[in-house]
Amino acid sequence: MVYVYILQSKKDSGYYIGISKNVQHRLNEHNLGKTTSTKNRRPFVLKYTERFNDYKAARNREIEIKSFKGGNKFKVLIR
């Protein structure tokens, strides 16, 4: 299984969208500062996950979610 996940920064309220086989482990890495792109925006909380059978499907969904980040579709998704 592969997951698309959305994190929200408690520092700046911004979002991060990613892919992982182990979302909890990945969240821990983000919160420990092991991810360069999110290091200065810690801590994060998990807002959304979606499960896929393969990486390609998850990657396509990640791209789709990023394309409407901040719009109405994104807001509906994270509710």
Describe the structure using short key phrases.
29% strand; single chain; 79 residues; globular; 37% helix; three-stranded antiparallel sheet
What does this molecule look like?
This protein has 79 residues and is an alpha+beta fold. Helices cover 37% and strands 29% of the residues. The chain contains 3 helices and 3 strands, in the order E-E-H-E-H-H. Strands 2-1-3 form a 3-stranded antiparallel β-sheet. Strand 1 and strand 2 form a beta hairpin. It is globular and about 30 Å long.
Biggest β-sheet: count, sense, barrel?
A: 3 strands, antiparallel
Span between termini: 23 Å
- Report helical residue fraction: 25-40%
* Strand proportion: 25-35%
Provide a brief overview of the structure.
The protein is an alpha+beta fold and 79 residues long. The chain has helices at 23-31, 55-67, 72-78; strands at residues 2-9, 15-20, 44-52.
